[in-house]
Amino acid sequence: MFHVRLTHSPENCWGRDEHEGKAEEFVARIENDEGSHGVSVHSAMVAPIEHTFYLLAEADEFESLTELLGPPLLEDHEADVVPVETFGNVLDTLDVE
User: Fold this and answer.
1) Which residues form the domain of 8?
2) Per residue in 29-41, pLDDT tens?
3) How many distinct structural domains can be found in the chain?
4) What is the CB neighbour count within 10 angstroms for residue 63?
């Protein structure tokens, strides 16, 4: 599981006319099994004032996630990708009851 934070400048904002269609293309890609590169996106949110997207995505391999985030996303955004675990998985790993 990965937490992804994508930020962009106001000039690269997908709400601008010159970037028309990019957001719709990305939403279609993450909702389509064939276009998702084997990545399940559990949640996708946007903070429009901050020009930031947040994703919680599950992938067996980091490479699959980078394929999903490929153009146009990483052309217009900077990405922070952090592997995350559920609390339950961590407690199981630590053998905490």
Assistant:
1) 2-94
2) 888 866 678 899 9
3) 1
4) 11
